[in-house]
Amino acid sequence: MQVLKDKAATTPISPTLLCAPMAGVTNSAFRRLLADFGGYSAIYTELLAGRQMVHEDAGKSPYIKRRAEEGKVIYQLLLTGQDSIPRIMDHLLPLNPAAIDINCGCGGKYVRQAGGGVALFENRGNLAKVIKDVRREYAGLLMLKIRLGREVPDWQKPFLERIRIIEDSGADVITLHPRFAGQHMKRGAKHELFSWLADNTRLPVIANGDILGPATIARNPRHFEKTAGIMVGRMAIICPWLFAAWDNPGLKVDHLKTWLRFYDYLLEDFGEKDALGPLKLFTKYYAQNYAFGHILYTATRSAPTVQALREQAIRFMSAQPAMTEPPTLPVIY
């Protein structure tokens, strides 16, 4: 893989092994947990709505604040073409982001209705405007995360039209999740398109989507040989040590201690009431480490408090249940 650096070479991200932005997950508490293990090059925030983040306390918000131990943090923004970019940058740049990423791939209802995500990718005028507006205010590494656009005959033509806009407007890097807008996680990601895109753009391409670890790349190395880096999403929730184990597959992990550490981090940042939702979401994925993980997930799903959830998790994991090796992603419809 190529070495990826920002224009000013002040925040190098190399080798490029990234943790993806994930709603409800990549808050500061989760980034802190990943930092305990290390191994990644940079980690994303959750998708941050530009208009809302200017009202957040950057030193207290569990979504925006950045602890030094997190390392390089990439801030992903929901932008629509109607935002006050100078005001957003005034709020964001003091946090010293390793890069800024404009989301052009999220298909969530709220994001689409606001004009962001896949809706921004579809709107050629707004797409160019947003990139240029951010570029004027920010000299660092500017990234875009995209999907393939609409699944229509000859989809490659409108897709490559957007790629030209991205190139000409001042972006530095493209991250491709090779599914069509609206597919969510249905059907497999089209990994063969990483090389195709790399051949059709002058920008570095980061590979994302259904990448579970080194074994994914080893199965079809030709699909990844032209990429500038690898981005892993949901598997990093299941195995927060994944990046540390990338080149050290024999890494030993205490699963219960790791879960309890994250519990403490969440309570510190969110408080007991607001930590319950993120903790349940984390546990849903973390349960995939176990052969009968559905028992853990079922037991914790209806827990009324974080303390009740903690008791259930300790009871399950202390019994030394059978592990799943390797763990797999839960099915999402």
Structural features, described:
The chain is globular. It has 333 residues and is of the alpha/beta class. Helix 11 (255-286) crosses helix 13 (306-318). The longest helix is centred in the last third of the chain and has 32 residues, at 255-286. An 8-stranded parallel β-barrel has the order 1-2-3-4-5-6-7-8. It folds into 2 domains: 17-238, Alpha-Beta Barrel (TIM Barrel); 255-318. The two termini are 33 Å apart. The protein has 13 helices and 8 strands. 40% of the residues lie in helices and 12% in strands. The chain has helices at residues 28-37, 50-53, 85-92, 109-114, 118-122, 124-137, 156-169, 193-199, 214-219, 235-238, 255-286, 293-301, 306-318, and strands at 17-19, 42-49, 73-78, 99-104, 142-146, 173-176, 205-208, 229-232.
Strand content: 5-15%
Q: For the CA atoms, what is the radius of gyration?
A: 20 Å
Order of helices and strands: EHEHEHEHHHEHEHEHEHHHH
Give me the oligomer status.
single chain
Query: Largest beta sheet: what is the strand line-up?
Result: 1-2-3-4-5-6-7-8
- CATH third-tier fold name of the largest domain: TIM Barrel
Query: What is the second-level CATH architecture of the largest domain?
Result: Alpha-Beta Barrel
Per DSSP, the total helix count is: 13
Poorly predicted ranges: 5-12
The main sheet comes to: 8 strands, parallel, barrel
The CATH homology group name of the largest domain: Aldolase class I
Counted beta strands: 8
Question: How many domains make up the coordinates?
Answer: 2
Please estimate the helix content.
25-40%
